[in-house]
Amino acid sequence: MSITMRLVTPDSLGEVVEAVAGWQQTGGPVQLHPGDLGWNWSLGGPELAEAVRVWTRDEQILAVGMVDDDTGLIRMGIAPSAGDDAAFAARILADLSDPGQGVPPGAVEARFGAAFRDLLHRNGWTADEPWTPLSRELTEPVADYGLRVEVIDAYRIRDRIVQDRVAVQRAMFTNSRFTLERWRTMAAAPPYRRARCLVGYDGGGDAVATVTVWSAGEGRPGLLEPLGVHRDHRGHGYGRAITMAAAAALREMGSSSATVCTPSSNIGAVATYVSAGFQRLPDVTDFRRPELTVAVTSTGA
């Protein structure tokens, strides 16, 4: 059976998104999600396609990597059927270790795939910054969150709400480069057909918080990416409220659970998610490339 790594085109990104959606499992690790691809689609389809690599066996997509040029990190998603395949893992690592392939990352986010993770360990890749995954089951209704929330989906796009959504995003993060044009690009892309942006308003009508929620399909985990509160309106419980609103939206969309992952050093964010009913899961780390090149060893054929 032939294992190959290939590039993707803007036209084939939809196929990649559907493959990644099918790998999401309730109770499983928070690995690369369609929402991650959808959020990065805001930069444009051609730009996203340049950042994505897929690994196939007999033309079936079994792994996807999305390169983050800003951090030198490649975020991986691996099909459950290939998680324990040592030969497949060895091929991924060989490609990631080969400068000729054009994707030698400084670090790898690999939260699923026992064979691949074991191979990274044994080849000298070391633990990087810890992240905290969190999850909330959505079998029961979400309690009232006490915040007026406006929803923007692929079919309800209101200019004023969109402008508020962009403005809050820019006020959430220092040096944010998010723009109205980027939002429109994201909203026009296939993943947003299963996504919603929520904007929360305080009693005076000011936009104070926002989140984008991404479904992977009925009965699969949904993702919060990104979420935050306007810097001028922090300390009033709006983070907890918009988090609960996000969970309620995903439940309405048929998601089995709501998931998110944040740097463990962001103690305030972790506490906010826990206060909104999310369960903190064991911390995970990315894998940092060893300084010296080492031979790839494998237990597989």
From TrEMBL:
Q: Which InterPro entries is this protein grouped with?
A: Acyl_CoA_acyltransferase, GNAT_dom
- Indicate the transmembrane segments per the record: none
Which molecular function terms from Gene Ontology are attached? Answer: acyltransferase activity, transferring groups other than amino-acyl groups
Task: State the Gene3D superfamilies in the record.
Answer: 3.40.630.30
This protein's UniProt keywords: Ribonucleoprotein, Ribosomal protein
Q: Which GO terms describe its cellular component?
A: ribosome
What CDD domains does its record include? NAT_SF
**Domain named N-acetyltransferase: which ranges?**
155-299
User: What is the name attached to this protein's record?
Assistant: Ribosomal protein S18 acetylase RimI-like enzyme
Give the originating organism. Actinoplanes campanulatus
